[in-house]
Amino acid sequence: MGKFLLVLQQYLFEIIPPLAFGFLISGIISEIIPKDWIEKKLGNKGLKSIFYATVTGTILPICCWGSLPIAISFYKKGSKLGPILAFLVATPATSISALLVTYKLLGLKFAVFIFFAVILMGMIIGVIGNHLSFTPKEEALNCFHCKELTVSQRKKGFKERLIRIIKFAYWDMPKEIGLETIMGIIMASMVATFVPIGFWIKNNLSGNLGYLFAIIFGLVMYICSTATVPLVDAFIKQGLNIGAGMTLLLIGPITSYGTIFVFKKEFGLKVLFIYLLFISLTSLLLGYIFSLI
Fold first, then answer.
1. Which of these, 137, 220, 133, 168, lies nearest to 63 by C-alpha position?
2. What is the pTM of this model?
3. Fewer CB under 10 Å: which end of the chain, C or N?
Protein backbone atom coordinates (compact mmCIF):
# COMPACT_ATOMS: atom_id res chain seq x y z
CA MET A 1 0.00 0.00 0.00
CA GLY A 2 2.88 2.35 0.80
CA LYS A 3 4.38 1.88 -2.68
CA PHE A 4 0.99 2.44 -4.27
CA LEU A 5 0.50 5.72 -2.41
CA LEU A 6 4.00 6.85 -3.39
CA VAL A 7 3.37 6.10 -7.08
CA LEU A 8 -0.03 7.81 -6.86
CA GLN A 9 1.58 10.90 -5.33
CA GLN A 10 4.18 11.03 -8.12
CA TYR A 11 1.48 10.86 -10.78
CA LEU A 12 -0.54 13.61 -9.10
CA PHE A 13 2.50 15.92 -8.91
CA GLU A 14 3.22 15.33 -12.61
CA ILE A 15 -0.33 15.66 -13.89
CA ILE A 16 -2.02 18.38 -11.81
CA PRO A 17 -0.03 21.43 -13.11
CA PRO A 18 -0.56 20.79 -16.86
CA LEU A 19 -4.12 19.64 -16.19
CA ALA A 20 -4.94 22.86 -14.32
CA PHE A 21 -3.45 24.94 -17.13
CA GLY A 22 -5.40 22.94 -19.71
CA PHE A 23 -8.62 23.54 -17.78
CA LEU A 24 -7.94 27.28 -17.83
CA ILE A 25 -7.37 27.27 -21.60
CA SER A 26 -10.57 25.25 -22.01
CA GLY A 27 -12.50 27.85 -20.04
CA ILE A 28 -11.14 30.65 -22.21
CA ILE A 29 -12.05 28.79 -25.40
CA SER A 30 -15.53 28.05 -24.11
CA GLU A 31 -16.08 31.75 -23.39
CA ILE A 32 -14.68 33.34 -26.54
CA ILE A 33 -15.95 30.90 -29.22
CA PRO A 34 -19.76 31.18 -29.56
CA LYS A 35 -21.85 28.33 -30.82
CA ASP A 36 -23.25 30.34 -33.75
CA TRP A 37 -19.68 30.87 -35.05
CA ILE A 38 -19.13 27.11 -34.96
CA GLU A 39 -22.33 26.48 -36.86
CA LYS A 40 -21.38 29.10 -39.46
CA LYS A 41 -17.94 27.63 -40.06
CA LEU A 42 -18.86 23.96 -39.84
CA GLY A 43 -22.35 23.96 -41.33
CA ASN A 44 -21.15 24.05 -44.95
CA LYS A 45 -20.36 21.17 -47.28
CA GLY A 46 -16.96 20.10 -48.59
CA LEU A 47 -13.44 19.41 -47.36
CA LYS A 48 -13.07 22.85 -45.83
CA SER A 49 -15.98 22.19 -43.48
CA ILE A 50 -14.56 18.77 -42.58
CA PHE A 51 -11.20 20.37 -41.80
CA TYR A 52 -12.81 23.04 -39.61
CA ALA A 53 -14.84 20.37 -37.81
CA THR A 54 -11.76 18.24 -37.17
CA VAL A 55 -9.43 21.00 -35.96
CA THR A 56 -12.14 22.62 -33.84
CA GLY A 57 -12.93 19.26 -32.28
CA THR A 58 -9.31 18.71 -31.24
CA ILE A 59 -9.23 21.88 -29.14
CA LEU A 60 -12.80 22.40 -27.91
CA PRO A 61 -13.46 21.33 -24.29
CA ILE A 62 -16.48 19.17 -25.11
CA CYS A 63 -17.13 15.65 -23.87
CA CYS A 64 -18.22 12.79 -26.14
CA TRP A 65 -21.78 13.20 -24.86
CA GLY A 66 -21.83 16.95 -25.33
CA SER A 67 -20.60 16.66 -28.91
CA LEU A 68 -23.74 14.77 -30.00
CA PRO A 69 -26.34 17.59 -29.76
CA ILE A 70 -23.88 20.01 -31.39
CA ALA A 71 -23.36 17.53 -34.22
CA ILE A 72 -27.12 17.33 -34.73
CA SER A 73 -27.28 21.11 -34.90
CA PHE A 74 -24.67 21.00 -37.67
CA TYR A 75 -26.99 18.77 -39.68
CA LYS A 76 -29.95 21.07 -39.15
CA LYS A 77 -27.84 23.96 -40.46
CA GLY A 78 -27.15 22.05 -43.69
CA SER A 79 -24.03 20.07 -42.87
CA LYS A 80 -23.42 16.71 -44.49
CA LEU A 81 -22.65 13.67 -42.38
CA GLY A 82 -18.91 14.07 -43.07
CA PRO A 83 -18.25 17.10 -40.82
CA ILE A 84 -20.49 15.55 -38.17
CA LEU A 85 -18.45 12.33 -37.99
CA ALA A 86 -15.19 14.27 -38.16
CA PHE A 87 -16.30 16.36 -35.19
CA LEU A 88 -17.44 13.29 -33.23
CA VAL A 89 -14.05 11.62 -33.74
CA ALA A 90 -11.84 14.62 -33.03
CA THR A 91 -13.72 16.13 -30.10
CA PRO A 92 -13.38 13.35 -27.49
CA ALA A 93 -10.14 11.91 -28.89
CA THR A 94 -7.97 14.68 -27.50
CA SER A 95 -7.99 18.14 -25.95
CA ILE A 96 -5.56 20.78 -24.76
CA SER A 97 -5.46 19.18 -21.31
CA ALA A 98 -4.85 15.73 -22.77
CA LEU A 99 -2.07 16.98 -25.05
CA LEU A 100 -0.32 18.74 -22.17
CA VAL A 101 -0.53 15.65 -19.96
CA THR A 102 0.65 13.49 -22.87
CA TYR A 103 3.65 15.73 -23.36
CA LYS A 104 4.44 15.63 -19.65
CA LEU A 105 4.16 11.84 -19.20
CA LEU A 106 4.89 10.33 -22.61
CA GLY A 107 6.97 12.99 -24.33
CA LEU A 108 6.77 15.33 -27.30
CA LYS A 109 6.67 12.59 -29.96
CA PHE A 110 3.51 11.08 -28.47
CA ALA A 111 1.80 14.48 -28.16
CA VAL A 112 2.64 15.61 -31.70
CA PHE A 113 1.74 12.26 -33.28
CA ILE A 114 -1.63 11.95 -31.55
CA PHE A 115 -2.58 15.52 -32.51
CA PHE A 116 -1.97 14.95 -36.21
CA ALA A 117 -3.32 11.38 -36.04
CA VAL A 118 -6.65 12.69 -34.72
CA ILE A 119 -6.79 15.29 -37.50
CA LEU A 120 -6.08 12.59 -40.09
CA MET A 121 -8.77 10.32 -38.63
CA GLY A 122 -11.27 13.16 -38.63
CA MET A 123 -10.56 14.09 -42.25
CA ILE A 124 -10.83 10.50 -43.51
CA ILE A 125 -14.05 9.67 -41.64
CA GLY A 126 -15.41 13.00 -42.85
CA VAL A 127 -14.83 12.08 -46.49
CA ILE A 128 -16.42 8.67 -45.90
CA GLY A 129 -19.36 10.28 -44.12
CA ASN A 130 -20.08 12.60 -47.04
CA HIS A 131 -20.97 9.51 -49.07
CA LEU A 132 -23.40 8.19 -46.45
CA SER A 133 -26.87 9.34 -45.46
CA PHE A 134 -28.91 9.26 -42.28
CA THR A 135 -32.04 10.75 -40.73
CA PRO A 136 -31.27 12.29 -37.33
CA LYS A 137 -33.68 12.37 -34.43
CA GLU A 138 -35.23 15.68 -33.47
CA GLU A 139 -34.31 15.30 -29.84
CA ALA A 140 -30.99 16.64 -28.64
CA LEU A 141 -29.18 15.70 -25.48
CA ASN A 142 -28.61 18.30 -22.83
CA CYS A 143 -25.07 19.07 -21.77
CA PHE A 144 -23.58 22.03 -19.97
CA HIS A 145 -21.01 22.41 -22.75
CA CYS A 146 -23.77 23.16 -25.23
CA LYS A 147 -25.52 26.00 -23.43
CA GLU A 148 -25.26 29.05 -25.64
CA LEU A 149 -24.67 32.49 -24.20
CA THR A 150 -27.22 35.16 -25.00
CA VAL A 151 -26.16 38.44 -26.59
CA SER A 152 -26.60 40.28 -23.29
CA GLN A 153 -24.39 37.74 -21.51
CA ARG A 154 -21.64 38.18 -24.10
CA LYS A 155 -21.69 41.95 -23.64
CA LYS A 156 -21.07 41.78 -19.90
CA GLY A 157 -17.86 43.20 -18.53
CA PHE A 158 -14.46 41.65 -18.00
CA LYS A 159 -15.23 40.61 -14.42
CA GLU A 160 -18.35 38.64 -15.38
CA ARG A 161 -16.56 36.92 -18.25
CA LEU A 162 -13.60 36.09 -16.01
CA ILE A 163 -15.97 34.54 -13.47
CA ARG A 164 -17.54 32.41 -16.21
CA ILE A 165 -14.10 31.30 -17.41
CA ILE A 166 -12.99 30.31 -13.90
CA LYS A 167 -16.30 28.56 -13.21
CA PHE A 168 -16.10 26.55 -16.43
CA ALA A 169 -12.42 25.72 -15.98
CA TYR A 170 -12.36 24.76 -12.32
CA TRP A 171 -15.95 23.76 -11.59
CA ASP A 172 -17.70 22.51 -14.74
CA MET A 173 -14.69 20.74 -16.28
CA PRO A 174 -13.68 18.89 -13.06
CA LYS A 175 -17.35 17.86 -12.65
CA GLU A 176 -17.35 16.55 -16.21
CA ILE A 177 -14.05 14.63 -16.35
CA GLY A 178 -12.69 14.88 -12.81
CA LEU A 179 -13.94 11.46 -11.68
CA GLU A 180 -12.67 9.75 -14.85
CA THR A 181 -9.31 11.49 -14.51
CA ILE A 182 -8.91 10.37 -10.89
CA MET A 183 -9.94 6.84 -11.82
CA GLY A 184 -7.41 6.82 -14.65
CA ILE A 185 -4.63 7.97 -12.32
CA ILE A 186 -5.58 5.36 -9.71
CA MET A 187 -5.67 2.60 -12.33
CA ALA A 188 -2.31 3.75 -13.65
CA SER A 189 -0.84 3.70 -10.16
CA MET A 190 -2.17 0.18 -9.60
CA VAL A 191 -0.66 -1.03 -12.88
CA ALA A 192 2.69 0.57 -12.04
CA THR A 193 2.68 -0.75 -8.45
CA PHE A 194 1.60 -4.37 -8.50
CA VAL A 195 4.19 -6.73 -9.94
CA PRO A 196 1.76 -9.49 -11.08
CA ILE A 197 0.03 -7.01 -13.42
CA GLY A 198 3.33 -5.83 -14.81
CA PHE A 199 4.57 -9.41 -15.19
CA TRP A 200 1.43 -10.39 -17.14
CA ILE A 201 1.70 -7.33 -19.40
CA LYS A 202 5.38 -7.92 -20.06
CA ASN A 203 4.85 -11.57 -21.01
CA ASN A 204 1.62 -11.19 -22.99
CA LEU A 205 1.27 -7.65 -24.33
CA SER A 206 4.78 -6.67 -25.40
CA GLY A 207 4.17 -8.00 -28.93
CA ASN A 208 1.33 -7.90 -31.43
CA LEU A 209 -1.17 -9.22 -28.87
CA GLY A 210 -0.94 -5.80 -27.25
CA TYR A 211 -2.80 -4.29 -30.22
CA LEU A 212 -5.72 -6.67 -29.75
CA PHE A 213 -5.80 -5.80 -26.05
CA ALA A 214 -5.78 -2.08 -26.88
CA ILE A 215 -8.70 -2.39 -29.30
CA ILE A 216 -10.86 -4.52 -26.97
CA PHE A 217 -10.01 -2.49 -23.87
CA GLY A 218 -10.56 0.77 -25.75
CA LEU A 219 -13.97 -0.30 -27.10
CA VAL A 220 -15.44 -1.65 -23.86
CA MET A 221 -13.93 0.84 -21.39
CA TYR A 222 -14.56 4.59 -21.47
CA ILE A 223 -11.81 6.79 -20.10
CA CYS A 224 -11.65 10.42 -21.16
CA SER A 225 -8.69 11.56 -23.26
CA THR A 226 -6.88 13.12 -20.31
CA ALA A 227 -7.38 10.16 -17.96
CA THR A 228 -6.24 7.67 -20.62
CA VAL A 229 -2.72 9.12 -20.69
CA PRO A 230 -1.47 8.05 -17.22
CA LEU A 231 -3.02 4.62 -17.70
CA VAL A 232 -1.22 4.13 -21.04
CA ASP A 233 1.98 5.46 -19.49
CA ALA A 234 1.75 2.80 -16.76
CA PHE A 235 0.98 0.06 -19.30
CA ILE A 236 4.00 1.01 -21.42
CA LYS A 237 6.32 1.13 -18.42
CA GLN A 238 5.19 -2.40 -17.56
CA GLY A 239 5.94 -3.68 -21.05
CA LEU A 240 3.04 -2.83 -23.36
CA ASN A 241 4.06 -2.25 -26.98
CA ILE A 242 4.25 1.54 -27.53
CA GLY A 243 2.28 1.13 -30.75
CA ALA A 244 -0.51 -0.56 -28.80
CA GLY A 245 -0.29 2.28 -26.30
CA MET A 246 -0.89 4.79 -29.09
CA THR A 247 -3.81 2.67 -30.35
CA LEU A 248 -5.38 2.78 -26.89
CA LEU A 249 -4.85 6.56 -26.66
CA LEU A 250 -6.74 6.98 -29.94
CA ILE A 251 -9.60 4.51 -29.52
CA GLY A 252 -10.28 4.69 -25.77
CA PRO A 253 -11.74 8.20 -25.40
CA ILE A 254 -13.92 8.01 -28.52
CA THR A 255 -16.00 4.97 -27.63
CA SER A 256 -18.04 3.82 -24.65
CA TYR A 257 -21.22 1.84 -24.07
CA GLY A 258 -23.14 5.04 -23.46
CA THR A 259 -21.98 6.85 -26.56
CA ILE A 260 -22.48 3.74 -28.70
CA PHE A 261 -26.12 3.48 -27.59
CA VAL A 262 -26.72 7.19 -28.18
CA PHE A 263 -24.87 7.09 -31.51
CA LYS A 264 -27.08 4.23 -32.71
CA LYS A 265 -30.21 6.12 -31.71
CA GLU A 266 -29.18 9.36 -33.42
CA PHE A 267 -27.40 8.08 -36.54
CA GLY A 268 -28.55 4.49 -37.09
CA LEU A 269 -26.96 1.05 -36.98
CA LYS A 270 -25.24 1.29 -40.37
CA VAL A 271 -23.42 4.51 -39.54
CA LEU A 272 -22.52 3.17 -36.09
CA PHE A 273 -20.97 0.03 -37.58
CA ILE A 274 -18.91 2.02 -40.11
CA TYR A 275 -17.89 4.46 -37.38
CA LEU A 276 -16.64 1.76 -34.98
CA LEU A 277 -14.96 -0.25 -37.74
CA PHE A 278 -13.15 2.85 -38.98
CA ILE A 279 -11.99 3.85 -35.49
CA SER A 280 -10.72 0.34 -34.74
CA LEU A 281 -8.82 -0.13 -38.01
CA THR A 282 -7.29 3.35 -38.21
CA SER A 283 -6.27 3.32 -34.54
CA LEU A 284 -4.59 -0.04 -35.11
CA LEU A 285 -2.80 1.16 -38.25
CA LEU A 286 -1.69 4.47 -36.74
CA GLY A 287 -0.45 2.70 -33.61
CA TYR A 288 1.62 0.34 -35.71
CA ILE A 289 3.04 3.23 -37.75
CA PHE A 290 3.98 5.01 -34.53
CA SER A 291 5.83 1.91 -33.30
CA LEU A 292 7.87 1.93 -36.52
CA ILE A 293 8.69 5.62 -36.16
1. 168
2. 0.70
3. N
- Sequence letter at residue 261: F
Cβ contacts of 241 within 8 Å, gap of 6 or more? 205, 206, 207, 208, 210, 211, 291
Rg of the Cα trace of the chain?
A: 19
Q: What is the pLDDT of residue 113?
A: 94
What is the 8-class DSSP label of residue 84? Answer: H
Rounded Cα distance between 250 and 112, Å, is: 13
CA distance 254 to 91: 8
Domain boundaries of the chain, sorted by first residue: 2-292
Residues 4-9, mean pLDDT to the nearest whole number: 81
Distances (CA, A) of 195 to 5, 169, 200, 206: 15, 37, 9, 15
Q: How far apart are the C-alpha atoms of 112 and 242, rounded to whole Å?
A: 15
Chain centroid to CA 177: 11
Q: What is the pLDDT of residues 164-217, one digit of tens each?
A: 888 877 887 777 667 766 776 777 677 667 655 566 666 666 678 888 888 888
CA angle 247, 170, 34 (to 5 degrees): 80
157: left (phi over 0), alpha (psi -120 to 50) or beta: beta
Q: How many helices (H) and strands (E) does the chain have?
A: 16, 0
pLDDT at 61: 63
Packed helices 269-292 and 257-267: angle between N→C axes, nearest 10 degrees: 130
Q: How many residues does the chain have?
A: 293
Largest CA distance in the chain: 61
Q: Is 169 exposed, middle or buried (0-12, 13-18, 19+ CB in 10 A)?
A: buried
Q: What is the pLDDT of residues 45-64, one digit of tens each?
A: 678 888 888 887 787 666 55
